[in-house]
Write a structure and sequence with these properties.
Layout: E1 17-22, E2 39-45, E3 54-63, H1 69-74, E4 86-88, E5 95-96, E6 98-104, E7 109-120, E8 125-131, E9 149-153, E10 165-166, E11 176-179, E12 186-188, E13 193-198, E14 203-205, E15 217-226, E16 235-240, E17 250-255, E18 260-264, E19 270-273, E20 283-290, E21 293-298, E22 301-302, E23 320-321, E24 333-342, H2 348-359, H3 361-364, E25 365-367, E26 371-372, E27 386-391, E28 435-437, E29 441-442, E30 451-454, E31 459-466, E32 471-478, E33 483-486, E34 499-506, E35 511-519
Parallel strand pairs: 29-35
Antiparallel strand pairs: 1-27, 2-8, 2-25, 2-26, 3-7, 4-5, 4-8, 6-7, 9-24, 10-11, 11-14, 12-13, 13-24, 14-23, 15-20, 15-24, 16-17, 16-23, 17-18, 18-19, 20-21, 21-22, 28-30, 30-33, 31-32, 31-34, 34-35
C-alpha cells in the first residue's frame, strides 16, 4: 500500500516542484511450488485406465515405473519415513497427501501412495512430483488413508527384520505383530515386498482395536499368491472371526482344492465365488458387503456365485492376517501383500481401477522427463522508498541597494528527502496461531461480506467445504503478508447460504482445520 503524502510550501511565495521517486516493488511469482526443490516431474494418469466417471480421494500407486536413474540420483533423502519427495496438483499450488511406503536408491525401487482428490475417467489427471531438497525430510501423511480405511498393511517394510511389527498406515495404528515368522519369510511381492506364510503356525496379529469392528458395509482386499493349487483347507487371508460357526465378525478364505473363494459373515453364512481355480501367481482379491449382500472379485472381475450373507455383527476377537482368529487355525500357505480393510462399499469401477493401477502402474500413468531449476532463491521482500525533492532552489531577488550601501542576497535552498518502508503484517512461521474473524459471521452486525484468516504463513492453501464434504471455495495465498480473505462466495462467485462450513488450511509442512459459522 502507498500512503498519500501532501507537501506544503516551506517558504511562502516561492515556487517549487515536487519530484516523487517510487522504488519499484516486484513480487515475483515462484515458478515452482517450492523453490527449495531442484527437480520435478509431470505425471499424467491415463483416464483410459480409470473405470467410471470419477473417484474421489483415490490413493494412486506411484512406483519406479517410467522413472529413470536420475530420479534416484537426485533424491536427497533415503529414509522412506522422511523423504524429500512431495506431490502437488496440476496447478502446482496445493501439496497432496502422500505416503512413501518403500524407497531403495541402490535397486531403484519406489512405492509411493498419493491421495488424488478427484481421479477422472474422462480426462487425464495431472500431478507433479517434486524432489531434490537436501534440507527437508517429510514424514508420511496419515491422511493419505482417510475416511473408510480402518487398516492398511503394505506388509513389506518391517524396520528391523522379523520378528517385528508390521507397520499399519492409517491413523488407527493397528500395527501387526508377527507370530513365528522368520527372516526368510520376507520376499519380493506384487508391490515391493511381501511375507510368505508356511501354512503351519505363521501369521500376523493386528490386535482387537474397536476401529476394526465393522458392521453394515465392508470391503476387504489383498494380493495373494497361493503356494499350491491342491491344498485341501480353507486358508484364512483376513479373519476377525473366532470360529466357522461364530455369530460375529468377518473373514476372507480360499480353498485351492475346491477352487472356492468365500467371505464369512454372521454364523455359517458366507458369500461365495465357486470354481475359481487360481494358479500360484499373484491375484488381487476383493470382497465387498452391503448389509446382507456381497460380491467377490478376482483381478478386478466380479466372480460371485452366491451373494447372500448374514448381517455383519461386531466381534472382539483380534484380527489375524494369514490365520483364523481364535482357536481354529486355517493357516494360509503362500504369500500376502497389500491388505486393506474398509468400512465402505467400494464400487466395481473403483475395484477395477485399483487393479489397473496396482497390477501395471507403468501403463496407469506416464512420468515425463525431469525438469530442473537453478540454485533456489529466497522469496522477495516488499520494500518501497519514497523521495521528495523541492526544486529549483528558491532565491530571493532582485538585489536591493540602500544607502549607505547594503546588499541583501540571501540564497535559501530546501531539500527534503525521506525513505518509507511499507511493511505489511509479517507472515507467520506456521499455523499455530491462525485466527478466523469474524466467526461466527452474523450479517446483522457485519457489513463487509467476508471472513479473514489471520496469522498465516507466506504460502498456504485454504479450502472451504460444506458439511456434506463438497468443496465450496479454494483460496491460494502466496505473498509476504499474514492474511487471506474469504468473501463468502463459492467457486462461481455466488454467495453461499447460512450454515456451518469446514475449512482446511494446508502448507507444505502441516494442516489446520476448523469451522466457520455463517448466518446471513
Amino acid at each position: 500500500m502507498i500512503k498519500k503524502i501532501t507537501a506544503r510550501p516551506l517558504l511562502a511565495g516561492l515556487g517549487y516542484a515536487m519530484v516523487l521517486c517510487l522504488a519499484a516493488t516486484t513480487l515475483a511469482q515462484a515458478a515452482w511450488f517450492d523453490l527449495n526443490y531442484s527437480c520435478k516431474r509431470r505425471i499424467v494418469i491415463q483416464s483410459s485406465q480409470v473405470q467410471g466417471t470419477s473417484h474421489l480421494e483415490f490413493p494412486v500407486l506411484i512406483t519406479q515405473a517410467n522413472l529413470d536413474a536420475a530420479f534416484f540420483t537426485n533424491c536427497q533423502q533415503t529414509d522412506p519415513d522422511n523423504m524429500d519427495i512431495i506431490f502437488t496438483n496440476e496447478a502446482e499450488d496445493t501439496r497432496l497427501y502422500r505416503e512413501i511406503a518403500y524407497y531403495d536408491a541402490g535397486n531403484q525401487e519406489l512405492e509411493a501412495w498419493v491421495r488424488i482428490p478427484s481421479l477422472s475417467g474422462t480426462t487425464d489427471t495431472v500431478i507433479y512430483m517434486y524432489y531434490g531438497n537436501p534440507g527437508v525430510g517429510m514424514p508420511d501423511d496419515p491422511e493419505t488413508w482417510v475416511g473408510a480405511y480402518r487398516g492398511v498393511w503394505h506388509i513389506q517394510e518391517i524396520p528391523t527384520g522379523l520378528p517385528d511389527d508390521v507397520y499399519e498406515s492409517t491413523s488407527n495404528s493397528n500395527q501387526a505383530t508377527s507370530q513365528n515368522m522368520e527372516s526368510g519369510d520376507q520376499q519380493g511381492g506384487k508391490i515391493s515386498g511381501s511375507l510368505n506364510f508356511d501354512g503351519v503356525d505363521e501369521y500376523l496379529d493386528c490386535g482387537a482395536d474397536t476401529s476394526l469392528e465393522i458392521t453394515g458395509q465392508l470391503t476387504l482386499s489383498a494380493w495373494i499368491a497361493i503356494a499350491s493349487s491342491t491344498t485341501d483347507v480353507y486358508m484364512s487371508v483376513i479373519s476377525k472371526k473366532s470360529a466357522y460357526t461364530s455369530a460375529n465378525g468377518y473373514g476372507m478364505n480360499y480353498q485351492p482344492n475346491n477352487n472356492d473363494l468365500r467371505i464369512y459373515g454372521n454364523g455359517i453364512d458366507f458369500g461365495q465365488a465357486a470354481g475359481q481355480d487360481l494358479d500360484t501367481s499373484w491375484h488381487y482379491i476383493v470382497e465387498v458387503v452391503n448389509n446382507t449382500a456381497t460380491a467377490l472379485f478376482i483381478d478386478g472381475v466380479d466372480v460371485t456365485t452366491d451373494d447372500a450373507l448374514g448381517a455383519l455383527t461386531s466381534d472382539t476377537q483380534a484380527l489375524h492376517l494369514g490365520k483364523r482368529s481364535g482357536t481354529v487355525t486355517n493357516d494360509f500357505s503362500g504369500s500376502l501383500d497389500e491388505i486393506r480393510i474398509q468400512d465402505k462399499l467400494r464400487s466395481p469401477e473403483w475395484i477395477r481401477t485399483e487393479y489397473n493401477n496396482q497390477n501395471t502402474p507403468g501403463s496407469f500413468y506416464q512420468a515425463e522427463a525431469e525438469q530442473t531449476q537453478g540454485t533456489p532463491t529466497p522469496p522477495p521482500t516488499l520494500t518501497q522508498s519514497l523521495t521528495a525533492t523541492i526544486s529549483p532552489t528558491p532565491t530571493i531577488s532582485p538585489t536591493r541597494t540602500i544607502s549607505p550601501t547594503y546588499t541583501a542576497s540571501p540564497t535559501i535552498s530546501v531539500t527534503s528527502t525521506f525513505t518509507q518502508t511499507l511493511t505489511p503484517a509479517i507472515a507467520a512461521p506456521d499455523l499455530s496461531n491462525v485466527i478466523v474473524y469474524p466467526n461466527p459471521y452474523l450479517a446483522e452486525f457485519y457489513t463487509r461480506n467476508q471472513t479473514t484468516f489471520i496469522n498465516l504463513p507466506a504460502q498456504a492453501t485454504i479450502r472451504i467445504y460444506s458439511l456434506d464434504g463438497r468443496l465450496v471455495r479454494t483460496i491460494s495465498k502466496d505473498d509476504p503478508g499474514n492474511r487471506a480473505v474469504w468473501n463468502l462466495t463459492n467457486e462461481q462467485n455466488r454467495p453461499v447460504a447460512s450454515g456451518i462450513y469446514l475449512y482446511i488450511i494446508q502448507t507444505i509442512k502441516e494442516d489446520r482445520r476448523g469451522k466457520i459459522f455463517l448466518v446471513r
